């Protein structure tokens, strides 16, 4: 696309970032995230959501927190979907204190807690 003078759209960047991150290639994913910043293409919650989910899959919980901070610094406010995703990933990792803090924060912000977040099987915590 670039060779033909075309600028990839948000959905294409999201697909690339999510694909790399799902396969554990976070350096490549972050390069494309940085490229979005360089060309002034706004990152959205779903851009970061794919990264957060992949970090959880690869048990990289500190990176989830860093990703959330970078998301906020980049001007992208986490929404209820982001918070639900964070709670699910922290719960899968057994990080119950982090999960509970996020849930309390959501309640204070009057954000919607999705049923898929509240129905985590107990076997995931053992």
UniProtKB/TrEMBL annotation:
Keyword Repeat: yes
Keywords, comma-separated and alphabetical: Repeat
PPR repeats: 9-43, 44-78, 79-113
Xref: PANTHER family: OS08G0520200 PROTEIN (PTHR47493), PENTACOTRIPEPTIDE-REPEAT REGION OF PRORP DOMAIN-CONTAINING PROTEIN (PTHR47493:SF3)
NCBIfam families per UniProt: PPR
Name the UniProt record assigns to this protein: Pentatricopeptide repeat-containing protein
Species of origin: Acer saccharum (Sugar maple)
């Amino acid at each position: 696309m670039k060779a033909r003078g075309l600028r990839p759209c948000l959905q294409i960047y999201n697909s690339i970032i999510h694909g790399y991150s799902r396969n554990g290639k976070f350096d490549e994913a972050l390069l494309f995230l940085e490229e979005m910043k360089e060309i002034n293409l706004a990152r959205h919650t779903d851009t970061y959501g794919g990264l957060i989910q992949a970090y959880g899959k690869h048990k990289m919980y500190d990176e989830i927190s860093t990703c959330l901070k970078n998301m906020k610094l980049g001007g992208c406010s986490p929404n209820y979907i982001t918070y639900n995703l964070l709670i699910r990933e922290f719960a899968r990792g057994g990080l119950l204190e982090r999960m509970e803090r996020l849930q309390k924060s959501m309640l204070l912000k009057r954000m919607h807690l999705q049923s898929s977040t509240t129905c985590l099987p107990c076997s995931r915590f053992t």
